[in-house]
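Example record used in the benchmark description.
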Amino acid sequence: MENSKNNTVGYIYALQAFFAWGILPLFWKLLSDIPAMEVLAHRIFWSFVFLLLFILIKKQKNIIALLKQKKTRNSLIVSSLLIGGNWGLFIYAVNINQIVEASLGYYINPIVNVLLGMIILKERLNTLKIVALIIASVSVIYLTIDYGRFPWIAIILALSFGFYGLVKKTAGIEAIPALTVETFILAPLAAGFIFWKLFDHSGALFSGDISTDAYLMLTGIVTTLPLYWFAKGAQRIPLSAIGFMQYIGPTLMLLIGVFVYDEAFKKEQIIAFSLIWFALVLYTISMIQGTRQKKEANYSSPRP
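Model output (structure tokens):
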């Protein structure tokens, strides 16, 4: 009974996280008149402030210990640069009305994870994952030809988040303490940029519009709260479920881009996205099969 309740809570946390990520373009659009670099600086700074308050309330004292360990500190420096770049590019994509292409990046991300696992972590792929990888790759090539240009926003978003996940996996650090250190590393640059804009009288903060001030400060909450929900959900439910639910976010982004902001979604894009969705179905089936096989193996193995 307790385990069932724990699973239910886990699914609620995960749904909250992926739904919040999916509708984030609506929030960033509220700040579309502000340069992406300035919004990014506020996102980093206020995320750090919010996380610092969070860990003080939770009385987590392992933040300093993370900074003292050279290997961990180096990993977090790399991951902070990757996530900072990812955040900035996503904001930029929303500002220039490329939400559809941004959503493509997060559709491709699971396939990038598979590829990184195969190349760097020497993970073996089963037949379904190989087929999914080939289909997704063909779809991206097809989109590139149709665009007449390389879909660099989608590819960089997918790669940056993929490598971010790889660094976090190999470092093995809890999500909230790690993100606190990552934002702490970037916060001095972000704060310096914000104060420079204030003294230069060219910044959006305290420029007279109270709603803009509120939105800029809220960037910390809308960034870190979904990550907290995701971490709590991932602790409680199977990885295969997380893998399947991962596509809620980019699907909502795609729908918002097409139906709310009237971004183009041509027949060629529908074909390419359909192929990617098919690849993701194969990928998810493969994950579910792998989880079941592990459970069966554990159940059938002799107990000591």
